[in-house]
Amino acid sequence: MKYKLLGRSGLKVSELCLGTMGFGTEAGWGADKETSFAIMEAFANAGGNFLDTANVYKLGTSEKIIGEFIGQKDRDFFVIATKYSLKDNTTNPNASGNNRKNMMRSVEQSLKRLQTDFIDVLYLHIWDDLTPIDEILRGLNDLIRQGKVNYAAISDTPAWIVSKGNTMAELMGWSQFIALQVEYSLLQRSPERDLTPMAKHYGMTVTPWAPLAGGALTGKYLKGGQGRIKPESNRRDDNSTRITREVIAIAEKLGVEPSHVALQWTRQQGFECIPIVGATRLDQLNENLKTIDLTLSAEDLQRLDAASTIDLGFPGKFFKEEGVRQNNYGGFYDRIIPRP
Predict the structure, then answer these.
(1) Does residue 214 share a domain with residue 138?
(2) Claim to verify: residue 220 and residue 333 sit in the same structural domain
(3) pLDDT at 265 over 70
(4) Residue 254 burial by CB count (10 A; 0-12/13-18/19+): exposed, middle or buried?
(5) pLDDT digits (tens, 9 = 90+) for 22-67
(6) Are residues 281 and 328 in the same domain?
(7) Among the options 3, 57, 184, 221, which is catalytic?
(8) Residue 338: which of 329, 330, 311 has the closest Cα?
(9) Is 6 exposed, middle or buried (0-12, 13-18, 19+ CB in 10 A)?
(10) Among 188, 309, 301, CA closest to 247
(11) What is the pTM of this model?
């Protein structure tokens, strides 16, 4: 596996990130400790060093399993990303949300479960629409100054909030967000309206969750497979079926699995992207690792883009109108080389 720099930092992470939301068997599904260890071992043997977890995954069991595993390994090889914000109890009004009190409390608990002195990347998990962004930035910066966190990142937050945060952090000399985690896949392209252009502008790496749309893009639901997705989900409607059939057709043409096509599509979208590949079985991980050997042609990308295109709305769609381009660029639109 090759390594990429995470956002505007010097942190080198593997080109695939291992999602560990399924480490633990709470709620009747997931991987037990032995299987989770085997998955992480195989990921590391392939050169993978980037692990994604959260304080709430499997009620904290995910972090505990990771902590036990890395305790037997070279801690500094692994880049551990975890998150704060979501509740771990319902008896304390400040045991959830983006506020500083919950941030500090949650990080201390995560450090104990992970059996480590520091967290490599700490994400704000979900925007609560209550806490001022400067409170969050100061808290994250204090944790970084204390050596308990190395880098700040953010997940599931409106683009204008992230933009305000990174601009404020730059002006104040605080640590900026280096990664943005959002749902992004061939079935969920709405981040292209604001979030992914914003991430590219600020040099942030996008780390998509559900890049296979909960397994829908593997074609398992077309074969009658079952899962935790509700039958009425848009991952199982006529549109998702049409897109998935196109993924399968390209996969069959290339002699690869549909998952490889769907994952690789996210990696070739013109912005820095490291998809999070979850696994609760070793064979799932081994299959997903083959993605890095695939490159999609311009023709295949165009087919997938056409099948999954969304209405960008205003102003994204407006900017693409030929009349607007003629007026805005004086007929030179196709002759201008954009910034990388």
Answers:
(1) yes
(2) no
(3) yes
(4) middle
(5) 999 999 999 999 999 999 999 999 999 999 999 999 999 999 999 9
(6) no
(7) 57
(8) 329
(9) buried
(10) 301
(11) 0.94
Residue 315 sits in the same domain as residue 234:
no
Q: How many whole angstroms separate alpha carbon 59 and alpha carbon 25?
A: 10
CB 79 within 8 A of CB 49: yes
Three-class secondary structure of residue 210 per DSSP: coil
60 shares a domain with 205: yes
CB 24 within 8 A of CB 30: yes
Number of structural domains the chain divides into = 2
DSSP string, 276-323: EEE-SSHHHHHHHHGGGG----HHHHHHHHHHH-----TTHHHHT-HH
57 flagged as catalytic: yes
Helices (H), the chain: 33-45, 61-70, 100-114, 133-145, 159-172, 195-201, 238-254, 258-267, 282-289, 298-308, 316-319, 322-329
For 173, the domain range is: 3-309
- The CATH number given to whatever domain includes residue 233 is 3.20.20.100
Q: Closest Cα to residue 63, out of 140, 115, 105, 108?
A: 115
pLDDT (tens digit per residue) in 174-188:
999 999 999 999 999
**At residue 320, does pLDDT exceed 70?**
yes
Q: Are residues 321 and 262 in the same domain?
A: no
Does residue 340 sit in the same domain as residue 277? no
SS3 annotation, 51-80 = EECCCCHHHHHHHHHHHHHHCCCCHHHCEE
226 and 97 share one domain = yes
Answer whether residue 228 shows pLDDT above 60: no
